[in-house]
Amino acid sequence: MAGTITIKNGYVFDPLNEINGEIMDVFIKDGKVVRELSAAELKNAKVIDASGMTVMPGGVDSHSHVAGAKVNAGRAMRPEDHYKANLQKTSLTHSGSGYTVPSVYKQGYDYSAMGYTTVFEAAIPPLEARHTHEEMHATPLLDMGGYLVLGNNFFMMRYLREGDMEKAAAYVAWMMKTHKAYGIKCVNPAGVENWSWGKNVSSLDEANIHFEITPREIIKGLTEINEHLGMPMPVHLHANNLGHPGCYAITKDSLKIFDGVKTRQDMDVEWAETKIDPSRNRSVYLSHLMFNGFAGTTWADCESGVKGVADYINNKDHVVTDSGCTPFGEATVMTGDGPAIHDLYTLTGNKWSSTDVEMECGSGVLPFTYYKSNPVHSLQWAMGLECLLLINDPWKTIMTTDSPNGGPFTKYPEVMTWLMSEAFRKQTFSECHKWANDRSTLGGINRELSLYDLAILTRANPAKTIGMAHRKGSLGVGADGDVTVYNINPQQLDANDYEALLRTFRKAEYTVKDGEIVVVKGEVVSLPGKRTYYSDVHVQDEREKEMLVDVKDWFRYYTIGFANYPTPEKYLENPTPIQVNGER
């Protein structure tokens, strides 16, 4: 049951309300933040004494891989991943296992222990949406949603090639409702379709096989559709040539496609009170910039190209990006970009899988380890931090590890501490291959992020970017009662004492979800309900009917019947549709 609670005397960091370390109380009633409580309510409320501690909204992860067939393939592929990290059953919690790819129960507990309350799956293949929702349903404590992979979908490429934007928009709207997805994901546009034939694309204007459509045309078309429909979030772009030396150039050129696009967010929701406009104002959400930020021509001369992309973003207002940091150690690479996984296989010889999800997208999975002694890996570590430190405005950045690609989300405390502590960065530099310093700009950066900056990167901006700031990422009146309390006194914070910061970020003092205390000192103490968000997008009935004639005709080529294609709401835990583009 949603609770009534008072969080007293904490140093509050709430960037959406421009609150920067003020000592104040936070009141929650019936699961929502309220302005005040009555005397009777105060008497009966639970109380957290946050004196001398840091109070932020609950963490929001807008890009993580936590559910679906490729995630489960990662779990199955790595038995060693499970005996290295396991969780014993208690009277309250399930058992679990997995380090880079935890089981569904363990990942929910691990996120909550760090102060996160909301996590979005970054790539849902339409045909595997039921599987994805089953795993999100089973993940405890976290409000969730996911992005539908559409950049190499047969119907999208067909309609875009024909220039039939009305049918394309109707198809996207129908697919969001059909698979209970939230936003549009575009992975290596045109290239993944080519991978079905063992090929890729190498430029924005190279047409793919059969459909003869280019990445530029796909990106532009999906963006036009996204804004026509008034979607909650921008197109989430995984740019072409990911992970190749020199890819920063095509990344920057891809971002230029979105320049000048007028954003339109048309959601019928109740907005929490904020001082900063909580609606989205970006036309592109670039994923994992680090992996798209290499310069050079080969692995022998590769170097960081992040500054080139960061300089562009610093001078433009239409881009937001997440970082895709690589904090060293074990990882499991999983992506809808099949060619990229094959490239890693040829480099490493590691076991791998590659899947073509019939007529819709593809994916690949490969175990990986990042070593400080490896020149490229050390460079990647530096590049990931450059993504967040070279972009001047923190409202253009989001902190991620592209979990588990750069490393598991449980490494977030390390990333947070590197961002806040130059001393910690220098210590890590001393352990790295010299490429980290020689081929990046990180060694010359003395910027240290503040707790306010960190609250933007991990709470306010992820929520604003994906259109969830009407209820997430802030402590304004009407917001969800999701709160993190860290045992950090901002007045005594010493960035040189990075070991203390690491300990604190690894285990939140309290995590509050919907007004219920769910974590105390990193231990789960209660299991309230959760929600699954999706976009219920409206278009004219006639447009949808015309489009469905095409879809039903083409379904003779699918391995399942049309009636079994949709994901019923029963697969979702507490389904919470966002009404989009509806008539009022």
Automatic annotation (TrEMBL):
GO molecular function per UniProt: hydrolase activity, acting on carbon-nitrogen (but not peptide) bonds
Domain (Amidohydrolase) ranges: 46-519
Any Pfam family: Amidohydro_3
Protein name according to UniProt: Formylmethanofuran dehydrogenase subunit A
Source organism per UniProt: Methanosarcina spelaei
Lineage: Archaea, Methanobacteriati, Methanobacteriota, Stenosarchaea group, Methanomicrobia
